[in-house]
Amino acid sequence: MYKEASPYFDRFYKNFNYSTDAFSKDGLVLYLYNIIKTNELEKGLKVIEDYFDVMNEYCDFHFVCGVYFTEIVAYDSTLYVGYFDNIELCYIKFR
Question: What is the CA radius of gyration of the chain?
């Protein structure tokens, strides 16, 4: 039911406060998984760009980013080949 969940995740993303909401890290990770499953890949680039620095120490975020970059490069390698190196970087962040 990923498509049905998308508007709720969008609302979550618009309204949460990263610094005060205890569930925000997990919510962002779940939001990215939903973006991957619904193939709304452009939306994921903005989420990663907005929160990559503040989520730097959260290993689940790096893992989902690795999955995300794998999916976006596979989706259109011509357009998104520039993200190819990010795949390995995300997966080895917390080796």
Answer: 13
Burial 25-63 (b: 16+ CB within 10 A, else e): bebbbbbbbbbbebeebebbeebbeebeeebeebebbbb
Give start and end residues of each alpha helix (H) in the chain: 2-15, 24-38, 41-51, 59-75, 77-80, 84-92
- Domain limits for position 53: 2-92
| 22-76 confidence digits (pLDDT tens) | 788 999 999 999 999 999 999 999 999 999 888 988 899 999 999 999 999 999 9
Of 26, 27, 1, nearest to 12 by C-alpha is: 27
Cβ atoms of 69 and 34 closer than 8 Å? no
Q: In the chain, how many domains are there?
A: 1
